[in-house]
Amino acid sequence: MRCIKDRLPHTLPWCTSIRGTVIKSCKFYPLLVDNDNKVLSFPPIINSRYIGEVNPTHTYLFCETTGTNLEMVLLVTNILATNFTDRGAQILPILIAYPDGKKVKTPQDISEPWELSPHEVQQLLGISLDMNEIHSILRAANYRIKDGKLYPPPWRADIMSVADIIEDIAIHRGYNTFTPLGLTDFTVGHSAPIEELIEDIRNIMVGIGFEEILSHVLTSKDNLIHRMNLPERKIIEIDNVMSLSYSVLRDTIIPSLLEVESLSSKSLYPHKLFEVGEVVIYDPNSPEYSRTVNHLAAIVAHPQANFSETHSYLNALFRQLNLTYKIEPTSHPSYISGRVAKILVNNNEIGIIGELHPEVLTRWNIKVPVSAFEIEIDAIG
């Protein structure tokens, strides 16, 4: 792999991906060969020049799909076969024989059967259709009807419930065929109380000299744990990520501020940054195993940044909000011992304030002291 990466720079992202995620725990890399033991491809890095190169004179193409999940591999093969069919190609199935005797024919229809009643359609769309009309519309959407059951097209992986099938009925029947309904209720819209509080907090933070940033709720596990000098903990991870930089949902905003600060070393000090945004907390007692709340986080960065200065900003914020709070000493791996405290409102812990540990600053490549605080807005709303 090192040889391929050095000779073919365009393969670098794939080499990095396969080493970093796909087969990190495997002892061997996949290599496909033919009966003559000649290399066909080194998935997903590169095809063989011997037999894998395609040019305009070729009339036959051998399409190979490799992956770690058979269902996804079959789906991708179906999509690929459909694309070629739409362009006039003839698809010749392949029988794959595994060493254990298992045989798989591809492309393969992996569609699951669904049942749908006119009543369900009427409930969601508000129109009466009989089964003949439903079947006629769905056939136009490439569904197969067999023994009263509905089979989505083999290239569709987005049918999660009957609601998705009913949506297909609406789309192929035409939204313009629906009769608009007039409004039956009169309502007056207004901001939710929590949104008004968030807007007040933004205005106060800007008024005391802070600059607001807006960052992604998605971040990396490394940012939340390793760079913050913290042990492993439960966080909400994303399946099938395209990039490790956006593989988890943040449960704190301070790493997002430190990421901006790490890129701002050439700007004149002091730096005073804040962000108001959503975080997602792992919660085993919730049906979704998570809860989404609003946080405020702020950092102060300059050669003399300290706890007292940041505390003065926190005090100004609560004074402007007309709220009473107190702080009590605590310990936290991200902060210097003896210079960190928990923030309490009505004896409930709602946040933390302190001077960030030198190890944290080193991992973020920040050259000046940084003090910070973070609070849960929903807890004071």
Automatic annotation (TrEMBL):
Requisite cofactors: Mg(2+)
PROSITE patterns documented for this protein: B5
A GO biological-process term: phenylalanyl-tRNA aminoacylation
Assigned EC number: 6.1.1.20
Keyword presence, Secreted: no
Domain B5: 109-180
InterPro entries linked: aa-tRNA-synth_II/BPL/LPL, DNA-bd_dom_put_sf, Phe-tRNA-ligase_IIc_bsu, Phe-tRNA-synth_IIc_bsu_arc_euk, Phe-tRNA_synthase-like_B3/B4, PheRS_beta_core, tRNA_synthase_B5-dom
Keywords annotated in UniProt: Aminoacyl-tRNA synthetase, ATP-binding, Cytoplasm, Ligase, Magnesium, Metal-binding, Nucleotide-binding, Protein biosynthesis
A Pfam family per the record: B5
Cellular component GO terms, alphabetical: phenylalanine-tRNA ligase complex
Gene3D superfamilies cross-referenced by the UniProt entry: 3.30.56.10, Bira Bifunctional Protein, Domain 2 (3.30.930.10), Phenylalanyl-trna Synthetase, Chain B, domain 3 (3.50.40.10)
Enzyme class: ligase
GO molecular function, one term: RNA binding
Superkingdom to which the source organism belongs: Bacteria
Protein name per its UniProtKB record: phenylalanine--tRNA ligase
